[in-house]
């Protein structure tokens, strides 16, 4: 499967990475004090795919906003996205207020409706994307690609039909935690059927916050890469969303990706703490298994130096000074998320040939 997925990478993308990894005598490496300039230059070719942005829920609380001119009430607006070299956003459809509202399906549908309205309101800055190729198209036209998700598993309403409806509305990631079929005890039989249906549709399984039993069972049965949308290294910080080294290694073996959050609670109070987590995930899971999650507009406190989405060049400059190669940085910012999206779409095409839409229901499977 992995070999077939690799064939999906276009010759142009492969050529870009090969060129970055082959220094020439005519272009000696710039001095270390030029790291920020190098970071900005790299982001023009390999922009950040930010894996966890809470803007839709935040905008619901504002009486008025203007993302085109700039909006001080949020961490994310179009001028700062451009300054930060951001090319794609995964918009989390997190549930407002209580962790388990009475009507989670309705709450997520309302956020989807708002998110689509916001994208339509700023066509010169944002573009809705439902696939890896549409994300690349948005980037080619100078727009920031917006992908819907992750959504909480409760948004599926214990119904595979509802899961399919969410996919039709654009949801591409589902967080597998907080339900009767994906909890501390792991996946139930119905939960396993949910994962198989996600594979058939092309919905990424987000394991952030999932129990260890759930995460490992997903990794056993999934035919697609997995994602951790905002998880650091548990070895460096004991936050419950962070992941132990053995699970990080399994995510790397799965060809999945761990998106390290710019969150003081998950990593630490300084930009260097985020860089430490990125170093650790790269070392344990590999350079092809690490990415970035801003956690902006989620209520998170951000490390000093990473106050909003415009600060990504400074984080990359820190990594350059730590010895990250341009190839590794290109994977970190754009390549790994793009590859995981492509792999999930490939797995969906293969699964669609093997099985029809599932008609399973929770009651008989979990009785």
From TrEMBL:
Q: Which GO terms describe its biological process?
A: proteolysis
Its taxonomic placement starts with:
Bacteria, Bacillati, Actinomycetota, Actinomycetes, Kitasatosporales
In terms of Gene3D superfamilies, this protein maps to:
Metal-dependent hydrolases
Concerning Pfam families, the annotation shows: Peptidase_M19
UniProt-listed InterPro entries: Metal_Hydrolase, Pept_M19
SUPFAM superfamilies linked to this entry: Metallo-dependent hydrolases
- Give the residue ranges for region: Disordered: 1-32
Question: Which organism is the protein's source?
Answer: Streptomyces antnestii
In Swiss-Prot or TrEMBL terms, this protein is called Membrane dipeptidase
UniProt GO molecular function: metallodipeptidase activity
Q: Which PANTHER family match?
A: DIPEPTIDASE (PTHR10443:SF12), MICROSOMAL DIPEPTIDASE (PTHR10443)
């Amino acid at each position: 499967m992995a070999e077939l997925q690799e064939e999906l990478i276009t010759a142009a993308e492969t050529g870009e990475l090969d060129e970055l990894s082959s220094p020439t005598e005519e272009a000696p490496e710039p001095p270390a004090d030029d790291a920020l300039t190098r970071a900005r230059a790299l982001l023009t070719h390999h922009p950040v795919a930010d894996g966890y942005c809470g803007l839709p829920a935040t905008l619901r609380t504002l009486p008025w906003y203007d993302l085109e001119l700039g909006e001080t009430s949020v961490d994310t607006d179009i001028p700062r996205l451009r300054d930060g070299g951001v090319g794609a956003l995964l918009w989390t459809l997190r549930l407002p207020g209580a962790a388990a509202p009475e009507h989670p399906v309705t709450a997520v549908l309302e956020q989807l409706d708002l998110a689509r309205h916001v994208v339509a309101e700023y066509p010169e800055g944002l573009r809705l994307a439902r696939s890896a190729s549409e994300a690349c198209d948005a980037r080619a036209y100078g727009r920031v690609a917006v992908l819907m998700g992750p959504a909480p598993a409760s948004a599926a309403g214990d119904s595979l039909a509802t899961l399919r409806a969410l996919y039709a509305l654009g949801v591409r990631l589902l967080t597998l935690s907080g339900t009767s079929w994906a909890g501390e005890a792991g996946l139930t039989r119905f939960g396993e059927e949910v994962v198989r249906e996600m594979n058939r549709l092309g919905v990424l399984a987000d394991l952030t916050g999932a129990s260890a039993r759930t995460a490992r069972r997903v990794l056993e049965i999934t035919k697609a890469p997995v994602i951790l949308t905002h998880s650091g290294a548990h070895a460096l910080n004991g936050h419950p969303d962070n992941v132990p080294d053995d699970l990080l290694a399994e995510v790397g073996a799965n060809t999945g990706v761990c998106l390290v959050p710019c969150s003081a609670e998950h990593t630490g109070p300084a930009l260097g703490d985020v860089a430490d987590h990125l170093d650790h995930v790269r070392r344990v899971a590999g350079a092809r298994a690490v990415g970035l999650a801003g956690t902006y507009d989620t209520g998170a406190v951000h490390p000093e130096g990473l106050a909003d989405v415009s600060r990504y060049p400074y984080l990359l400059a820190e990594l350059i000074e730590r010895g990250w190669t341009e190839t590794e940085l290109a994977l970190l910012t754009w390549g790994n998320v793009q590859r995981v999206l492509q792999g999930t779409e490939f797995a969906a095409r293969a699964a669609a040939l093997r099985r029809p839409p599932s008609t399973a229901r929770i009651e008989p499977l979990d009785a």
